[in-house]
Task: structure prediction
Amino acid sequence: MLTLMIRGILIYAIVFLIFRLMGKRQLGQLQPFEFVITLIIADLATIPMSEINIPIVHGVVPLVTISIIHFLIGFLSRKSIKLRQMFNGKPIIVVNPNGVDYNELKRLNMDFNDLCEALREMNYFSLDQIQYAIVETNGQMTVLPNAENAPLSAPDLKIKKEESALPIMLVCDGKVIKENMDIAKLDDDFLQKNIRKAGAFKVKEVLLATIDNNGKMYVQARNKKYVSFQTNFKGGENW
Result:
């Protein structure tokens, strides 16, 4: 039993490290070669965990080999456009201003039902709403609506908007994030003064506190509604 536990922990640690190094893509965002490697790793990992008669090194070596193949393919894909297209494929336009490109649909092994279902998931229920629909290399579909169905933007309405701001977390679950406080060049007095506006008198009473680079602060105290307000903070150039 102890042997199984040790083998399980070791294999788990190796697989966890491999997936951490592979990045943080979700399953639906994986390129074809990444998806294949993920399936192989999952299958290889189960063998040394359950089969005591198989030396654990016989399970570790294939896992490491597969991970090396993944990094090699990723490296070659970054260096060569042709290799990138070979490993990942390339985006395919399935709807253009002339309508649905049936030949491209067949290349993707899709039919009209698949296309319409994917478009409905993006809140497009009629093909005449679409200027272009593109199937990306990871299988996701992106859509460029025609002018009549494109969402209005601030320039369309002649509205002047402030530049987007990036919030930085100052307090998380009652704990001050000192590193972020230093990045924002804020002190404890500033923090204490502003969390009181949310009805919290101690930092440990705060679930979450953030501030963006325009000085807008978001504070949510425990068991209370969040409060969002403008401060006199004039920094933000550091993040």
User: Anything to note?
Assistant: The chain has a mean pLDDT of 85. The beta strands are 92-96, 99-100, 130-135, 141-145, 168-172, 175-176, 206-211, 216-221, 227-230. Residues 75 and 84 are 10 Å apart (CA to CA).
